[in-house]
Amino acid sequence: MQTLVKKIAITGGTHGNELTGVYLVNKFKANPNLVKRGTFETLVMHTNVKAIEKCTRYIERDLNRAFSLKDLADPEKYSYEDLLAKEINAELGPKGSADPKVDFIVDLHTTTSNMGISIIIDNDNTLTWQLAAYLKEREPKVKIFTWKGDTGDAAFVHSIAPNGFAIEVGAVPQGVLRADIFLETEKLIYHILDFFEKLNTKQLEELVGTVETYDYLELFDFPRDPEGNITGMVHPDLQGKDFMALQYGDPFFLTFEGETIRYEKAEESFAVFINEAAYYEKGFALCLCKKKSVKIPTMP
Amino acid sequence: MQTLVKKIAITGGTHGNELTGVYLVNKFKANPNLVKRGTFETLVMHTNVKAIEKCTRYIERDLNRAFSLKDLADPEKYSYEDLLAKEINAELGPKGSADPKVDFIVDLHTTTSNMGISIIIDNDNTLTWQLAAYLKEREPKVKIFTWKGDTGDAAFVHSIAPNGFAIEVGAVPQGVLRADIFLETEKLIYHILDFFEKLNTKQLEELVGTVETYDYLELFDFPRDPEGNITGMVHPDLQGKDFMALQYGDPFFLTFEGETIRYEKAEESFAVFINEAAYYEKGFALCLCKKKSVKIPTMP
Questions:
Q1: Does A177 sit within 8 Å of B234, measured CB to CB?
Q2: Which of A99, A196, B24, B41 falls between 20 and 30 A from A131, CA-CA?
Q3: Any idea which architecture B217-295 has in CATH?
């Protein structure tokens, strides 16, 4: 690969109650040598300081849905997170620029779903996919999930840079630090730094072949009554089973009255983000996806 | 036992982001027959509606610390939860009255700690302990924890009534419904209703002997720097090990720099509320307790 990387950003606290990213950024700020490499600059930052202080996901709106080009250009958007997104875009972007301030963003998240250690990708860029494949080679348990969900126009923090993704690790409650999850995320960050150092010093062998991914199919809501109230829960047999195959007839939801609602699609699929706390208000209980083997993009 | 019970209360949503209680109260309101018994009245209520709407623990202060006699009588206490506590006290109490409006309160909670299905008791009253022993006989996995923690004067919701306790079930994240935990809590409530029905119809045999409890010893904070910032996490070997024995030298915390801090007391103890999200701001990482076998109080 020809690409050279001059600056990357490690961002945490985009959701202020996802503590792993918050405290990893603290650690790297206190020990900058941990993320310093010879051939590029590493910026570490808390993206939503006010939400971190309040230990809440956001103040007025989800910051990690506020980075569409449309919203960033819209002067009518002036909630706390809209203004914050414009600020961050000025600092790390601007998004879509031919000469952005950072080449790559990794945004650190956690989830109450049992996602293990996963990477959420929403672009087709070679460098992003080469890195994802590199990580999966080193840590085979890493799952790659391609998101085409509720955002439409890519609106995540990491979309500001030409390349990037979110690391999404769980299960961990909001407002809780789990040492195992902290350590897994930290290890992945060091692999990412190694990747860019190898890339810049021409020691990286471009990966060819395929990589296993879970591709977004559809968001699936809880059962609800006509007023919109939830009438059931994720079925106990499905709880915690992120990335496992769902077949026709498998238990899906359990109503409060004790009735089992079953998975009724003919095709096998895989559920992820099962019972994520933050998605109750967004109106979905889980996301269905398809397992695929995709060709790793290589440089032309 | 001679006692007759005229009215009990099942309360949920004292912490608005602990969804099991919120949705069980919804279920019982929609199906009052489930909690209706012949010899006493059952009131079901959401205690903190505004916190439930916002899916947050509280609006201004922890409602479940607002029921001390001192605070209830203090006209200077007028935060949202202070006023709410006074309202609830008028509806269910008043606390300390010779003729309170309800005889027993069970307040429904969940925790991010791996507490299984446990009962938190902070009084020595015969009826409360008879019921606790009755539940443990029917569901041996129920743990009884006696709290003499951060509250001093009993300040919990259930302290309004002459008898009562909190059900505390976990691990479940804040803002999440888990079907297994919902079902376990519901089953315990039906046992409680059976107990009072048997009591009132003289079909209850008074329990004698002893019951296993975990008694409060001390609250234990995270390691912190001089500015009060957390410098470590619950050790991965301790995470999720609520109610298991801790011996001298066992791993206790893991600092962000990777150093293990060990349990250094000579005496064995047992940790509970390990890594509960809501207790970070209260300044404790866990509660140490002592396992005991206590004589079940009987009627004089």
A1: yes
A2: A99
A3: Single Sheet (2.20)
